[in-house]
Design goal:
CATH class of the largest domain in chain A: Alpha Beta
Strand content of chain A: 15-25%
Shape of chain B: globular
CATH superfamily of the largest domain in chain A: CBS-domain
Strand order of the largest sheet of chain B: 2-1-5-10-9-6-7-8
Largest interface: A-B, 21 and 27 residues
Number of domains of chain B: 1
Helix content of chain A: 25-40%
CATH topology of chain B: Arginase, Chain A
Distance between the termini of chain B: 28 Å
Number of strands of chain B: 10
CATH architecture of the largest domain in chain A: Roll
Low-confidence stretches of chain B: none
CATH architecture of chain B: 3-Layer(aba) Sandwich
Mean pLDDT of chain B: 96
Strand order of the largest sheet of chain A: 7-8-6-9
Structural class of chain B: alpha/beta
Number of helices of chain A: 8
Oligomer: heterodimer
Shape of chain A: elongated
Number of strands of chain A: 9
Helix content of chain B: 25-40%
CATH superfamily of chain B: Histone deacetylase domain
Order of helices and strands of chain B: EHEHHEEHEHEHEEHEHEH
Structural class of chain A: alpha+beta
Largest sheet of chain B: 8 strands, parallel
Radius of gyration of chain A: 25 Å
Chain lengths: 212, 320
């Protein structure tokens, strides 16, 4: 659950004195949206994003003469002029949940991962999605998600697991989630079998009802 | 003496019954027996021609599967194993030979089609194939019958631009894997939504990669969807995509487990829907690819409705 397993290690970084055209080229060529800005010791001093750069470049709506003038200025500007300096960072010990809460709170697209102030990685919302996709087995070949109504009886989860294991039915995930709308729990089971009807019948015979 | 071309040739083989999946398995020999009995009883199908299958030559299998998997499969059956990689994939001593014979049905059919001996062909085979991947089996499938046929058609007869349309209730992950990086091979599938259904793939955003971007069209249906929802897709996005694609030949992965009586999916198709699907694929093949149409049986497990469902599909194929 630590982000160190999912982050991009030793990411591409830029220095504060890099000219904007060069930073823009790096972002475009690599199809990146975020670049950490570091000093000579690799310590984070800011972040620059494709959005910062788009704001810095003159609008195509401007008159040609005005646009050229603004363009000349931008070409001379450096990363330090437009980077954001008030950056939050993660550490390799941050968990996926830490990252999710930060992304959700600050509407960030990516965060630098710091160890003693030095940039050791970058973790984006796309990395987070990929990590959760893997954790929940979404798109995993050979699997299917089955919903089960929790009847609230003691030992209900144990009964499900025991039944599956006794019949050698492979499964990989079992989640119990509170459904506030209906005031009860819903259980989700990720099965690894094609013989779903047989599992549904087996559960039904044991008094366990499946739902879509 | 050369016989007049048959409207529809069914390629099948009694050897297909020899793939024994043991007890308590949905993919059983009775599936084929019931289909054949239904087709033979129907008086309006008197002109149907039946031909035996032939084993796919190893080099055609290798166009689709790694040799390592072929060896592993063959070794597993010969050593007496009862399943391979997963207990879903039940095997017996004959399973490798039967699977190679199932994969060869498409080849026999394509020869007949290309020689003008039949207008169209339908391979009634088992084990099914559309879940089988390059190096491993999945969901009762060992060799990917549709993709083996596709490679044969593309390479032996130069029908490069090919479409596989799959109406089985489950996504054909193996066909998608084979086609998703190719510009000339299109896979169109209507299936129950992967969040609720095996094999957990076939989301609409899976559209292919690189040169194959746009060569995959996944159209998932929510559990409970029936004739109306399928027909809307069939007459809308599917017809449009195949029309734009202009294929040289069409293969249909014909699975019947979307029937409302079949417990293998949450879809609720009627028997009559399969006739409409048959009519559509026939019409598309005439419009876009000179009538070159090959259907290959995939799933369909509810024995009380499987016979009538296939009958309805064949009725549709024979419509003018």
């Amino acid at each position: 659950m630590y982000i160190s397993r999912y982050m991009i290690k030793e990411p591409l970084t830029v220095t504060p004195d890099m000219l904007l055209p060069e930073a823009r080229r790096l972002l475009t060529e690599n199809n990146f949206r975020h670049l950490p800005v570091v000093d000579r010791d690799g310590r984070l001093v800011g972040m620059i994003t494709d959005r910062d750069l788009r704001s810095a470049y003159p609008s195509s709506m401007l008159a040609e003469s005005e646009r050229l003038l603004a363009y000349e200025q931008v070409e001379k500007a450096v990363v330090a002029d437009i980077m954001s300096v008030d950056c939050v960072g993660l550490t390799p010990e941050s968990t996926l949940d830490d990252a999710l809460l930060l992304f959700d709170r600050d509407r960030m697209g990516a965060l630098p991962v710091l160890e003693d102030g030095r940039v050791v990685g970058i973790f984006s919302s796309r990395d987070l999605l990929a990590a959760y996709k893997e954790l929940f087995g979404i798109g995993e070949k050979g699997s299917v998600l089955l919903g089960i109504d929790d009847n609230g009886q003691k030992g209900f989860m144990t009964r499900i697991v025991t039944l599956l294991e006794q019949h050698e039915i492979p499964f990989t995930r079992l989640l119990r989630i509170y459904d506030a709308e209906h005031g009860n729990h819903r259980i989700y089971l990720r099965l690894n079998t094609f013989k779903i009807a047989q599992v549904v019948n087996l559960l039904r015979e044991a008094g366990i009802n499946t739902v879509v | 003496m050369r016989l007049p071309p048959s409207l529809l040739t069914l390629i099948t083989d009694s050897r297909f019954l020899d793939h024994d999946t043991g007890c308590d398995h949905p993919e059983i020999p009775a599936r084929l027996q019931i289909i054949l009995a239904a087709l033979k009883q129907n008086d309006s199908f008197a002109g149907l021609r039946f031909e035996n299958s032939r084993p796919a030559e190893r080099h055609w299998l290798q166009e689709v599967h790694d040799e390592s998997w072929l060896f592993r499969f063959e070794e597993a059956v010969l050593s007496g194993k009862t399943s391979i990689d997963h207990t879903d994939n039940q095997i017996c001593y004959d399973s490798y030979e039967v699977a190679a014979l199932a994969a060869g049905a498409g080849l026999a059919a394509i020869d007949l089609l290309e020689q003008g001996q039949t207008e169209q062909a339908f391979c009634l085979v088992r084990p099914p194939g559309h879940h089988a991947e390059r190096v491993r089996p999945f969901g009762f499938c060992f060799l990917n019958n549709c993709v083996v046929a596709a490679r044969y058609w593309q390479q032996r007869y130069g029908r490069k631009r090919l479409v596989v349309f799959d109406f089985d209730a489950h996504h054909g992950n193996g066909i998608q894997s084979a086609f998703e990086r190719e510009a000339d091979s299109l896979y169109v599938s209507i299936h129950e939504h992967p969040s609720f259904s095996y094999p957990g793939t076939g989301y609409s955003d899976e559209q292919g990669f690189g040169d194959g971007r746009g060569s995959i069209l996944n159209l998932p249906l929510s559990p409970g969807a029936g004739d109306e929802q399928l027909l809307a897709l069939l007459n809308g996005q599917v017809a449009e995509k195949i029309g734009q694609w202009q294929p040289d030949a069409m293969i249909v992965a014909a699975g019947f487990d979307g029937h409302r009586a079949d417990e293998m999916s949450g879809l609720r198709y009627s028997t009559g829907l399969y006739e409409k699907i048959g009519q559509s694929v026939r019409r598309w093949s005439n419009l876009h690819c000179g009538g070159r149409l090959l259907s290959i049986l995939e799933g369909g497990y509810e024995l009380t409705v499987l016979g009538e469902s296939v009958e309805a599909y064949v009725q549709g194929l024979l419509s003018q």
